[in-house]
Design goal:
The complex is a heterodimer of chains A (96) and B (487). Helices cover 32% and strands 4% of the residues of chain A. By secondary structure, chain A is mostly helical. Chain A has a domain of 38 residues. Chain A has a two-stranded antiparallel ribbon. In chain A, a hairpin with a 2-residue loop joins strand 1 and strand 2. Chain A starts with a helix and ends in an 8-residue tail after the last strand. With 487 residues, chain B is an alpha/beta fold. Chain B contains 15 helices and 11 strands. Chain B has an 11-stranded mixed sheet, with helices on both faces. The longest helix of chain B has 24 residues. Classes of the chains: A mainly alpha (96), B alpha/beta (487). Chains A and B meet through helix 1 and helix 2 of A and helix 9, helix 10, helix 11 and helix 12 of B.
């Protein structure tokens, strides 16, 4: 077992997932099995190997400082679960 | 009017439309009728956009009547995997968390289809957020394999491949992160192409693993695949990772021989629990290509063995970051139980994501967390380099590599769903190409007990043209692509 029940719960909280007890058990089992299968990678010597984050030879991509058509406030807010004027409404974050 | 228009390929329909034997409306109506008669059994579509499709078809008919030139795919009905944004049309990723999401813009591929007269006929089912190999992870329903309704169509683009196989679409687009176009194409007996990473814009493709995701066509034959590639390939201002390199005319690759082509057959692709009938079909296909003028040689690619663990670190790591945006704030589901921000995040994501998505977010979060980053994520990125180098070595000697697409034919619904680990083995032969960012196609090359077998042809970076040439030569010499399932 790579991850204890408590650690599974901790990772879930980091990922902002509220898991039931049962989910912690099932997902925990699956995750441990996967993590064990990753051990095979340790067989490979990667001491002097550069990591690949992207396969395309693209570095920084710049564009001219030119304005282009963009979304209207109504379009931006079209899918908002809750809206007040031109803002997304969320539960209170700061106590008054 | 020709009956059963829905059975034809795009290039056959183009000929009929250009001769004015049929209208674009006839074609679209024929495919819509087909959807009405079989989709309750095959279940390809999350959304059918019939009104939009007929309006687009009428528009092309008007342009033809006005004497405007007919573009190659004008009036052709396209299905889109439901992870590609369509303005004003529901785009769900087959997830509860996006059950109500109507994008306010079109993905670049959608814009290109529409600007070229293509007709959008609907949005197809997938494994939730493209995570899976059977469509069983869809939050809505499981798509069925048209060759055997008790079997899965493969995944994650199973809705798109089943739609093309069942003649419920003429062309479909899918996305391929670890095999999600090629594996279901093999299961459904259709052509599925993953282009080079960066060849096709990802703008408007809802992100799963950004360094791996690539959109590609799913078609009834290789000619349609070339036509669709002409439509979707090319640099896009809105995707900074799309490549600014010339796009050849892919129809120039449609040459019915394979003279001078050097084929590598990496034996390591045949040892991954590949069913004997699949090995036989693929080796027979290699002989067909030899008869068409190609040379082949067996070779080895040891790194195939390490593709799966590398993928299941990198893809979930990227996904855990990409899927952080589903927080209930700006779009999609927000839990009713959102009394404070943290509760809103926790409950929304608990209610909105299915088990497979949660599992991958967890794996990714763990692999990226402090103290484990080097052991998992960095290690996987380094192994990814080794996989790329293994391909580069082979491509010094060979023009293309030939292998099976999937170790098995389509499996039964429910057979693997209980064991996510078994399910993941379905992608063992397709993942390596994603790791290296190189193009690969699956085309039909045989049948085992009436179920299609896929031949995978893997090519050099940006050399889609040679893959299409080899695929076309094989297709012209065989008739596997002409068989149709009885539904």
């Amino acid at each position: 077992m790579k991850l204890s029940k408590e650690e599974v719960a901790q990772v879930a909280f980091l990922a902002r997932l509220e898991l039931s007890e049962q989910e912690i058990d099932t997902l925990g089992g699956q995750i441990n099995r996967l993590l064990e299968s990753f051990d095979r990678l340790q067989e490979l010597d990667t001491e002097n190997v550069e990591p690949t984050s992207h396969t395309v030879p693209v570095q920084n991509v710049f564009r001219g400082d030119v304005s282009r058509p963009s979304l209207t406030p109504d379009e931006v807010l079209a899918n908002a679960p809750e809206r007040v004027d031109n803002t997304f409404e969320v539960p209170r974050i700061v106590e008054t | 009017m020709v009956d059963k228009l829905y059975q034809l390929t795009a290039h056959e329909l183009h000929d009929l439309i250009s001769k004015k034997e049929v209208s674009c409306r006839d074609v679209t109506e024929s495919v819509l009728d087909r959807i009405r008669s079989v989709d309750d059994r095959v279940k390809c579509y999350v959304t059918v956009t019939d009104e939009l499709a007929l309006a687009q078809a009428d528009n092309v008919d008007k342009q033809i009547a006005a004497g405007e030139p007919l573009l190659p795919l004008a009036g052709i009905p396209f299905a889109l995997k439901d992870n590609m944004c369509t303005r004003g049309v529901l785009t769900t990723c087959s997830s509860k968390i996006l059950h109500n999401f109507k994008p306010v813009y079109d993905a670049t591929v959608v814009e290109r289809i529409v600007n070229n007269g293509g007709v959008i006929i609907g949005k197809t089912n997938l494994d939730e957020f493209a995570m899976g190999s059977s469509t069983e992870n869809s939050a809505f329903f499981t798509t069925r394999n048209p060759w055997d309704i008790d079997r899965v169509p493969g995944g994650s683009s199973g809705g798109s491949t089943a739609a093309v196989a069942a003649d419920e679409a003429v062309i479909a687009l899918g996305s391929d992160t670890g095999g999600s176009i090629r594996q279901p194409a093999a299961f459904c007996g259709v052509v599925g192409f993953k282009p080079t990473y960066g060849r096709v814009s990802r703008y408007g493709l809802i992100a799963f693993a950004s360094s791996l995701d690539q959109i590609g066509p799913i078609t009834k034959d290789v000619t349609d695949c070339a036509l669709a590639m002409n439509l979707i390939a090319g640099k896009d201002f809105c995707d900074s990772t799309s490549l600014d390199v010339p796009v050849p005319d892919y129809t120039k690759s449609l040459i019915p021989d394979a003279k001078g082509i050097k084929i590598g057959v990496p034996t390591d692709f045949f040892g991954q629990g590949v069913e004997p009938e699949i090995v036989n079909s693929v080796m027979k296909a290699v002989e067909v290509l030899k008869d068409l003028g190609a040379e082949y040689k067996e070779t080895s690619m040891k790194m195939v063995d390490y593709g799966l663990p590398t993928y299941y670190i990198i893809a979930p790591a990227e996904a855990s970051s990409n899927l952080a945006r589903y927080d209930g704030v700006r779009f999609g589901l927000r839990s009713d139980d959102s009394k404070d921000p943290i509760t809103m995040f926790l409950k929304t994501r608990e209610e909105g994501f299915g088990p497979e998505v949660k599992q991958r977010i967890m794996i990714g979060t763990y692999a990226l967390s402090a103290g484990y980053y080097d052991a998992y994520y960095l290690k996987a990125q380094k192994v990814r380099t080794l996989i790329r180098q293994d391909f580069e070595r082979l491509f010094e000697e060979f023009d293309v590599l030939v292998a099976p697409t999937s170790p098995t034919v389509a499996f039964k619904v429910g057979e693997r769903a209980a064991d996510p680990f078994q399910m993941k083995l379905a992608d063992v032969l397709t993942i390596p190409a994603n790791m290296a960012g190189i193009p690969a196609i699956s085309i039909p090359c045989g049948y085992a007990d009436g179920l299609p077998i896929g031949l995978q042809i893997i090519g050099k970076s940006l050399d889609e043209a040679t893959i299409l040439r080899v695929a076309y030569a094989f297709e012209q010499a065989t008739d596997y692509h002409k068989r149709k399932p009885e539904i």
